Each structure stands twice: as structure tokens, then as C-alpha cells.
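Final report, closing paragraph on structural work. Over the funding period we assembled a curated collection of sequence-structure pairs, and we close with a single example.
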Amino acid sequence: MDSLSQIVLGAAVGEVVLGKKIGNRAMLWGAIAGTIPDLDIISNLWLSEVDGLAAHRGISHSLLFSVLGAGAFGWIVDKIYSSPYHKHIALLLRSLLFLSVIGGLLTLAITTPPKLIPALGAIGIGVSGYLWMKRRYVTHPIDKPNATLQEWMLLFFWGLVTHPILDCFTVYGTQLFAPFSKTRVAWSTISVADPLYTVPFLLCLIIASFLAKESRLRRTVNWLGIGLSCTYLLFTVFNKQAIDRIFVESLDAQGYEYTDHMTSPTILNNILWHGAAKTDSSIIFGKYSYFDSDREITFYEEPLGDANLAGIENHRTIQILKWFSDGYYNVIDRQDYIQFNDMRYGRFTDDNTSPDNYIFKFNLRRLGPTDVEMLESQGGPPPGNEAEIFEALFKRIRGIE
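Its predicted structure, as stored:
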């Protein structure tokens, strides 16, 4: 799921574990715990892009990491608060979290190059926020939290483990059993960003944060947010079962023969779904919205395009991309480069004339008869076409072709 959802979930479980004892600091450390698994993107600084793709949502999103990390991070925080300088360290950590949140928001808002602008903006806001907090709080005593080492470990365990479990509900999936298995657990019931999951949850968390830590209402509101989010997740599970039946019935009715199939919701909703089916030589795909006039889905079939991988089909980069896409892919020759499309996400619109219409794609360059490198990965609308793409998405959600 998106970073905001993970922060909210981590803060809410932190509140459950220690909110009554230490108030909003439980939310703060829970939010940090909920963010830690996604810090695996730091590995992109030294890994190639394709290796970074394989590493993301790997060991840091595993059950093993949740257990070991809970012990390590819980011990570190306990030591921080045992230090006579804990108030300075705590303020620094608050500012780092603040910097992380602002940086994420700016990155979302400003997606066009150069990325230097949101980075500098985030740093500036984070530094100024730290200086303000230092002036406001360092001159006042900050009590040591009334929490034991075991309680800190418990807070970090739930903050860490709920992160990959939530990610399992997306089509991207997560390597929950790493390093013992590279299988990506992906139930594909919810979009990686869904306001109906996040917004009510966030509102409950914000309200709870303004209530006294001893207040029963505070705990009730926080549990209300957790309950609403879990109820919505449960709804997406049952909704996916219904959608799967609709896709299978439509595929069978139209006489398609296939070896496997999958469905996943499109971005920001659980109403419009994308479905894909595999054959030995092609990918069949289409969309269905609950607002469509009937259940007869219009499918499109495209060749896998494996001929475009001649000589490099066994290259490690290609094998990683096939593993990452779970075999739902097609390959296009773009003359100057090869485009590998992850068909679990499909196309923005039904226009099949533009190779730029694929949602998640990887551009590759041949280095020789048997060698290839990944130039870049591209996800989301092409720069400059965001408004047009999202307008088409919202129309399709409403059943308008």
C-alpha cells in the first residue's frame, strides 16, 4: 500500500499497544515502525534498477524481519529513553519522521523532473520544523515514557508485521516468507492507493490524537478506525471473489482457452477491475466496472512477444522481470529498445495504437546477442498526460467507454 496508509496503520497499532501509557509518542513510534520496511528502497543507491526491483518488498517485508526487527528496534528505543539525552534524540527522530512525510507528499505532488525541488523543499521544512520543536520543547522537561523493553518490542513487532500483511492484499505483493522463499504473496484485492481504506482510518487517528491518553473515547475512536479499515479490507476480499466469477464466466462464454487468470482493482477504487488471462502464446485482458451495462467484458488479446527476447530469454534481467510480473507480460520491439509490459496492470485506456499506453513497463537495451540491461522502469501516466488519463479512468469507473 501507499506510504500514508502504512504510516496510519503503524500509528494505530502503536496506540493500541502503548497509547494509554505514553500517549501520542506511541502513535509516533508506531508510524516509524510502519515505515521501516519500505526503507529497503535505500538499496537502490548501490543496486542496479533490476536488482532493486527484486529486492523491494523482500527480506524487510518478511515475517522473520518482523520478529528480529522488533527485538532490535525495541531495544534501541529503550536505550534511547534510558539516555540522559533522550529528549534531544526524541526531537531529532520526530523531525526525521516529519521530513519523511513532507518529502513523500512533495514527491507525490511534483512528479516531473528535476526531483531536486521536492528534496530540497522537504529538507528545508524538516530542518525548520526541528529548530522550532527544539526551541519549543528542549527548554521544558520531557518525561521518560513509562514503557518496558518488552512493550517497546511488542509495539515494533505489530508495527512491522502489519506492514507486509497489508501489502499482501495488493497485486504488487510481498515476499512474506523471505529469505526461505521468493514467492510473492499477492491476494490482489485492493489497489495500492485506495481513499476508502485510508481516509476514514486517518480521520479517526487524528481525532484520537487530540484526546487525553487516559480517555476511553480515545481508545474507542482508534479502534473504530482499525475496525473500519479491516471491514473494508474484508469487503475487498469478498468483492474480488465476485469479480473473479464475472471474468471467468465472460472468458468461458466467449470461448477463450487459457492456463491461468488474475484480477486486480484499478487505482484509487474497488469498482473498476482489470483482469488478465494467460495462454501459451498470448495475454487476454479487459476491464469490468460494476456500473457497466452488462457483464459481457470486452477482451483484448496480445501476443507475449517472446520472439523479441531471442537470445536473451535466459538472461538474469529477463528472468527477474518474468518472476516479478508472475508471467503476465508482453514484449514490444521499440526499435531503439525493448519494452517489457507488466500486464497485471494492463493499459490506461483501450487504445492499442500507442505502446506508451501500458501502466507498468520496463525499457531494455540489448548489449549484444545474449546480453541486455534495464534502462528504466516506468509506472503511472506519462508526464503531462495525468489529467487526461485520470479523467478517462473516472469515466470508465462510471461505466462510460
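Strands lie at 260-265, 272-278, 282-289, 300-303, 329-333, 338-342, 360-368, 371-379. The chain has eleven helices and eight strands. We thank the funder for supporting this effort.
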